[in-house]
Amino acid sequence: MPGPGPEGYDAAPFVPEKADLRRLREAAAGCRGCPLYRDATQTVFGTGEPSARVVLVGEQPGDQEDRRGEPFVGPAGGVLKRALAEAGIDPAEAYVTNAVKHFKFERQERGKRRIHKAPGLREISACKPWLASELRLIDPEVVVALGATAGKSLLGPSFRVTQQRGVPLPLPVPDGAGEGGQEGEGAGALVATIHPSAVLRADAAARAEAYAGLVSDLGVAARLLRG
After folding, report:
1. The whole model's pTM is what?
2. CA atoms of 217 and 149, how far apart (whole Å)
C-alpha cells in the first residue's frame, strides 16, 4: 500500500485511476492520506447515484456519521433533508458527500464525548483528490457547498460563505492537486450556503432566520436544476 505524501497529507496515492464510484468507495476505506484516519472509526464516503444532477458537499463526518459510515445521518442531516424538501429538491435524487472523509475531533475532558473540530487547510487539501474524483464521475449540473470547508475545498482558501452564498457561481473543475487546484470552469454551477449544523448552533432567536436562509439558498440550486 502506498504511503502518504512527504508531509503525511496527500490522498492522491490512494485514489485508483479509471475507477467507478463503487471502486472509489472501496479504495477510500483504506485511505491513509492524512493523520485523521488514526482516530476516526472509518472513512465516510459519499452516497447516491452516479446519475445525480445535484451534489451536496458538506464539511466532514460528525460523530454519528463516523460510527455509521454514511454522510449526513445525524441531526444536521435531518435539517438538510427538511430544507431540501422545502426548497424543492428531492433528497433521494442528490449525491451527498463531504470535503473531508474522516471525522476530526477532540475528547471532552474526563469524558468519552467526542467534540467536533474543524479540519485544517492541509486536511482539506489532502482529501481533495477523493472529492475531485466524485465530481468528475458524476458530472453534476449543480454543486451545493454546505459551509466554509466545502467552499474552500472547491473555490480555494479565500472563499467566504457570508460573501458568496446564495448566488450561482461557475463550477470549478477540480484537478485534485491541492487546495483550490482546478483545471478551469465546468458546465455546471455552484451554489454556496451555510452548513446545516449552523442552524442547530444558532440560539433560539436566530434559528428560524438561519433555517430560512438555508432554504432560500437551496431554492437557488432548485431553480438552476429546473432550468
Report:
1. 0.91
2. 17
